[in-house]
Amino acid sequence: MDTIILAGGKSRRMGQNKALLPLGNERVIDRLINEFSPISRKMLLVTNHPSEFQSIHINKVTDEPEFKGHGPLAGLEIGLKSSTSQECLIIACDMPFASRQVGKWLVDGLINSGYDAVIPMFEGRIHPLFGAYQKGIQSIIRTCLLDQKRRMTDLINQLNVKLVEQNDAPDYLQKVWEKCFWNMNTMDDYQKALKHLGGQNEF
Predict the structure, then answer these.
(1) Per-position DSSP letters for 43-112, written without gaps between them
(2) For the chain, N or C: smaller number of CB within 10 Å?
(3) For the whole model, what pTM was predicted?
């Protein structure tokens, strides 16, 4: 499997590049790379600001010119196009506590399943930016973008998707399920992440 980290956003609500914020003794992006590289054949970083990630030594790709600024769907499109595996794990850079155990379980559920994607849910909300996707759906994503359908739901509605909830996961994943999909979008969220890292459960 390939792991594709989406870091193409402008971090408007954060006010700075959230992927480069320090958490403990490493940055968020380093944390994700270190977490997922042991289970990945190849790692890709999708960013429209590659100069900000010069110290990151994994493959970097940018949105195709006609899709720049079209959101995470454009990042997913170029990530899958650039991947070398049939099954890929997608992770947004604002999920600092994403778990490789959960990621591997999602991808394992995709292999030979007949599904286009395996997407997790928590408390009734889907989390398509930490999910397993077949490389072959790249052409469907491209069509969505060309048709000005830029939301992840525009894509999901066209796919054969398996949605999985916490109680579908094995026992060893139950305790990490909630924090795995937590998004860090604001400075308040960042402070919560720091407190959580320090042993204070903030979410």
Answers:
(1) EEEE-S-GGGGTT--SEEE---GGGTTS-HHHHHHHHHHH--SSEEEEEETT-TT--HHHHHHHHHHHTT
(2) C
(3) 0.93
Is 6 among the annotated ligand-binding positions? yes
Which of 44, 134, 39, 35 is closest to 88 using CA atoms? 134
The answer to the question of whether 63 is labelled as a binding residue is yes
User: Is residue 199 included in any domain, yes or no?
Assistant: no
Among residues 94, 169, 164, which one has the least CA distance to residue 126?
Answer: 164
pLDDT in tens, 84-128: 999 999 999 999 999 999 999 999 999 999 999 999 999 999 999
Flag whether 159 is marked binding: no
CB 117 within 8 A of CB 161: yes
Please give the single-letter amino acid code of residue 122. Answer: F
Counted domains in the chain: 1
Q: For residue 154, say whether it is annotated as part of any ligand binding site.
A: no
Taking the C-alpha atoms of residue 110 and residue 133, their distance in angstroms, rounded to an integer, is: 8
The pLDDT value recorded for residue 49 is 87
Beta carbons of 91 and 5 less than 8 angstroms apart: yes
55 CB contacts (<8 Å, ≥6 apart)? none
Tokens of 95: 């999920």
Q: Residue 33: give its domain's CATH number.
A: 3.90.550.10
**Position 141, amino acid:** I
Domain span including residue 145: 2-194
Domain membership flag for residue 157: yes
